[in-house]
Amino acid sequence: MRRLLALLWLPSLLAGALTACGGAEEARSAMTVRVLVRDINIRPEGVACAGTGPYTHFHNRAPFQVIDAAGRTLAEGSLSSGTSVATFEEDLEVARVPTYCEFAVPVNLVARDTYRLVVDGHPPIDLTPNSSEGPALVAVVPS
How far apart are the first and last CA of the chain? Predict the structure, then answer.
């Protein structure tokens, strides 16, 4: 009888042990990583752009990682094309205005206190939560 009970309980015990070792998958939330590169170029709003000067590593297809405070990778991918956005809210009444180059990429992240962005192996940039345009993590470069 003992052997029969042991055989019946063994699969349950093994399944429980394997679950405990693997740990549960953490819940992820969809959000956008938005980076404004302050290149202050004079151009029309809404055109494709890339970082200039010391920020040429910000460009379409540049590899990126979102990491936590311990340096663990939470998400990775490639930047999309940048889009020029006006530096000032006021209407300057001209076709070309001072702009930033904005990069926005969707990610699914687990909840952490700190997020940082690494673009093409360059030093990490701190990301700040911002919900003004939906759930997002935002950085302005240079800060």
Answer: 71
